[in-house]
Amino acid sequence: MPGLDRLHGRVVERILGALVELKGPEAVTTLGGDLGRLHHVLDVEDVGPLRDWVIESLRGDLLALAVQVGRWALGWTHDFHVDDYLILRINFPYALARYAKASAENPGIGRVSPAVRPIAAARRVKNPVYDPSAYHRDHPPPAWAHGPHLDSWTGHSRDGFNIWWAIGDVPPEAGMVLYPQLTDAPLACDRRSLYLAAGHPLPPPTFAPLAAGEMLVFDPEILHGTHLNVTDRTRVAISLRLNTARPTFDPASFYAREFWRTAGDIEAGRLDRIIHLKREDHLASDAPDPVRAPTLRAAIAPTQVDGALVWITLDQPLALGERIAVALNDDRRLMLVRAQDGLRALDGACPHYGLDLMDGGVEAGRLYCPGCAIGFDMATGRSSCADLVLRTYGVRETADGVVIALNEAGPTAPR
């Protein structure tokens, strides 16, 4: 796209300029121009001030970029709307971010223009059901990863397009994940987290790695989320949003992104023109009825437990790719799965957020978390993050079921 490389260079320059303001010129020298090493010179608590400096110094350029995407990439010749809410995403590696203060900013938090911030603050609604901290298992916000969702669930407009622009390299283990196979499928939102409700079986995630400067433009009503950043690199990206028509909002959402601009105003340089679309006056009349959450798949109970040995009775052996959950008690589940190389027994919950792995996709010997998209090797339990590992257990088949040895690692329990 014309001018994209030049603007990308300016964004990097502004980030480095903000770093000088916050940490001094020696920090930029140490960084050596590599934004992936940002966590070596920047404290997690400094991400908020850096965002303020960069976004406000480039707001006009970024809004113009959104218009250019609409014209050049999407072919829109009419006037359309651009969200005033801009996000500079700075995700530190999970190994570091998990130790941040609880008061530090969520990487997904953006900024509206200073002129409308008092109005936005006055319009903010606190919903007693919404409890993101519980979903994220009390991790500090810098260590959060977005679970699968539709943007309209989270207060964004319907009929929009998202721009996800990589400022630094974004590998699969730190980028967007999508589930296009579920487009148009009835999906239930868990209102406690605004993410996909438990009980929906997911396919393996589709990863969207990007090189620095590359851009993903996608329909945010395709189920999508983000992979927890389990690399040793800081992820830096910018998010923008545009709407082909006047934005409307899902009536089921308790808040909305209400501040917008028109492409015509941006092209004419009228950057003081911001339109306030109050949520209650712009609810979608054709929004589908909320989908009821699916019934969770029941776990089977052991027929016998003798110390560390657990007997499970099965009507028939598991077929290739088939899996079942085993409830040891109210708080602990295991999973049995028939892999290419035999039967496996593993922990049934992701060690990150504790989500039920029965909902995750399986591909090429890997089991994917339905929330953070981390893939676990079903033979070893390992993932690409040394801190996030599933325990595996010895297992052997009997005439009417299986025996799991809780004090043995897989693949075979002693006879």
Task: Tell me what the structure shows.
The chain is α+β, with helices and mostly antiparallel strands. The mean pLDDT is 93. It folds into two domains: 4-281, Jelly Rolls; 304-405, Rieske [2Fe-2S] iron-sulphur domain (Rieske Iron-sulfur Protein, 3-layer Sandwich), CATH 2.102.10. It starts with a helix and ends in a 10-residue tail after the last strand. The protein is built from seven helices and 22 strands.
Shape: globular
User: N-to-C terminal Cα separation, in Å?
Assistant: 65 Å
Total of helices: 7
CATH architecture annotation of the largest domain: Sandwich
Largest sheet: 7 strands, antiparallel
Order of helices and strands: HHHEEHHHEEEEEEEEEHEEEEEEEEEEE
- Radius of gyration, in Å, reads 23 Å
> How many strand units?
22
Briefly note the CATH topology name of the largest domain. Answer: Jelly Rolls
- Name of the top-level CATH class of the largest domain: Mainly Beta
What's the overall average pLDDT, rounded?
93
Unreliable runs: none
Structural class by secondary-structure content: alpha+beta
- Count of spatially separate domains: 2
Task: Briefly say what this structure is.
The protein has 415 residues and is of the alpha+beta class. The chain is built from seven helices and 22 strands.
List the main descriptive attributes of the protein structure presented here.
single chain; 415 residues; alpha+beta; Jelly Rolls; Rieske Iron-sulfur Protein; 2 domains; seven-stranded antiparallel beta sheet; 7 helices; 22 strands; 18% helix
Q: Secondary-structure blueprint of this entry?
A:
Elements lengths: L3 H20 L1 H7 L15 H27 L7 E3 L3 E5 L2 H4 L19 H7 L8 H4 L24 E7 L9 E3 L10 E2 L4 E2 L9 E3 L6 E4 L5 E3 L8 E9 L15 E4 H5 L7 E2 L27 E3 L2 E5 L9 E5 L5 E7 L2 E6 L14 E2 L2 E3 L6 E3 L14 E6 L3 E5 L10
Antiparallel strand pairs: 1-10, 1-11, 2-10, 3-8, 3-10, 4-7, 4-9, 5-6, 11-12, 13-14, 14-22, 15-16, 16-17, 17-21, 18-19, 19-20, 21-22
